[in-house]
């Protein structure tokens, strides 16, 4: 399957753009030298690497991201974490909620603390590298998707002139309460695109009704087809189909479906 070409002048939603945002999310897991070498091949010529530590309810964690720029676009990609780690510190119910951006709603304490540790670096990098009115993009997988979504919200709600042109997340957990989700959907309509792969376990945490997903979702079914809508019954049937795909390990389907390569394979096929 041929790889679609990255369009630096892209605006709006497309599966081709989703594929390249997924590539950037995957690249965020690599060391800085690999990130720069790869991103230069994609046509970017300026970079900033971000790395900090934060303390969720469990042991100290690190947060990593990178910002890459060219004369047409600026992309910030956040690194994710293992499903087990994210489930561990999302399961803690003793921490208070973290205030949402510009005092709008609330987010889970762990997400708020992780973002707070790295957001000043990200904001400063975007301000520095966006010197030609470039488009702004955020992306990430897993925890990285949560941070990408929240960083885009914080940038806009605290500096309204800076509204991201696109936010693409993959296997993102729920990030906020209903108030912030509603404010996001009004501000980011047609700009945020959340991809969920079949039985991926991470988008199912933290639990409702305290936490909510934002509205726009693209669902990858058990056959790898990307659907922009699906009935409740259709979704249940498709998830059941995914669970039976591996008769020897059905319980691990939620973890397998979270792997970033699964998202990339589906996007490459659908965007080709």
From TrEMBL:
InterPro entries: AB_hydrolase_fold, Fungal_lipase-type, Sec_MonoDiacylglyc_Lipase. Pfam families: Lipase_3 (PF01764). One of its GO terms (biological process) is lipid metabolic process. Residues 75-208 form the Fungal lipase-type domain. This is Lipase.
């Amino acid at each position: 399957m041929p790889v679609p070409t990255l369009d630096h002048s892209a605006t709006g939603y497309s599966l081709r753009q989703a594929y390249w945002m997924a590539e950037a999310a995957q690249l965020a897991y690599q060391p800085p030298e690999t990130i720069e070498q790869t991103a230069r091949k994609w046509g970017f010529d300026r970079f900033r690497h971000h790395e900090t530590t934060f303390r969720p309810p469990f042991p100290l964690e690190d947060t990593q991201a990178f910002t890459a720029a060219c004369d047409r676009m600026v992309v910030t990609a956040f690194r994710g974490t293992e499903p087990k780690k994210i489930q561990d510190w999302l399961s803690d119910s003793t921490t208070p909620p973290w205030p949402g951006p510009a005092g709008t709603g609330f987010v889970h304490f762990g997400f708020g603390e992780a973002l707070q540790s790295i957001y000043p670096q990200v904001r400063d990098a975007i301000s520095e590298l966006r010197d030609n009115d470039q488009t702004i993009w955020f992306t990430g997988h897993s925890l990285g998707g949560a941070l990408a979504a929240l960083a885009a919200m914080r940038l806009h709600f605290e500096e309204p002139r800076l509204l991201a042109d696109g936010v693409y997340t993959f296997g993102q957990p729920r990030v906020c309460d209903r108030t912030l989700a509603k404010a996001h959907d009004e501000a980011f309509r047609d700009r945020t695109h959340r991809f969920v792969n079949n039985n991926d376990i991470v988008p199912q945490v933290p639990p409702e009704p305290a936490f909510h997903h934002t509205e726009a979702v693209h669902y990858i079914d058990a056959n790898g087809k990307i659907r922009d809508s699906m009935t409740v019954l259709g979704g249940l049937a498709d998830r059941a189909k995914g669970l039976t795909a591996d008769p020897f390990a059905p319980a691990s389907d939620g973890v397998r479906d979270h792997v970033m390569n699964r998202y990339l394979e589906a996007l490459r096929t659908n965007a080709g």
